[in-house]
Amino acid sequence: MSHILRFSLPGPEAISLPDTLDCGQSFRFSQNPDGSFSGVAGGRFATVSLSDSTLSVECFCRTGESTPADCESFWRDYFDLNRDYDVLKLLFSSDETMKKAVAYCPGVRLLRQEPFEALCSFIISQNNNIPRIKGIISRLCECFGEPLPGGQFAFPIPAAIAGKTVEDLAPLRSGFRAKYLLDAAERVHNGSISLCGLSRLSYDDARVKLMEIKGVGPKVADCVLLYGMARVESLPRDVWIKRALEQLYPEGFPEEFAPVAGIAQQYLFHYCRTCPEAGLVVKSEK
DNA sequence: CCCCAGGTTCTGG
DNA sequence: CCAGAACATGGG
Question: DSSP string covering A202-257, please?
Fold first, then answer.
């Protein structure tokens, strides 16, 4: 009961599965022994693999809930396949540091996740590490998400969390973040914030609105806008990007990248975090 | 036992 | 307004 979708890519380096699915933007995928990745997005369980210039997605949908065309459209959007990354890489390569970053991880792409999932995921991400973030999100889905074929669970809808208590969330072991998740779910559920409605706001207004949620500061708000709403001008300033901007761009990040700074950030983040050659000083700070 | 983790909030100057 | 501490939890 699955369909296999095949997407032709511009080249074999157009996407790296590990660099894209396991780089701290989506927390729902894990690698299989054969190198493919399996996970859930948009209520669809899928196994994703890459050979040559073809991205294959075996999608296990709930029966009768979506046509192959819907699935195709969903995954094309999820992997941001409608965006021309070659043009962006060319632009970024006008800067020496970004040129190195792009060359180091040319297959990094933005994943276009659902807004509420991005909101919860990056609330959980604060002062936390990626393996534990994945664990908490996994338990969140098991506890409050709809079961899917294959023993997987969809990401919970706001109504499944709204009205719960901190004690109800105890099994997640999310620590002090539980109260933040509850506030986020309640505000979205009761309409005090409309995630879809944020699309019609300016970047600044949308950011301010998101920060009304407890536990959502500038960094988490930027992640929600970037990963959950594809606001690619949004530049989340985490510790690594702060280091990169301080040490590699003391004169400021190139202004011509501003409209797509979020995509540039994807390369820079991965480069600085995993490539020793990037030469960032980690400790120090005064 | 200490430090750290894709931060935010709270508190004292 | 701003620097530090506190915040839960788990791994090193």
Answer: -HHHHHHHHTTSTT--HHHHHHIIIIIH--TT-----HHHHHHHHHH-TT-S-GGG
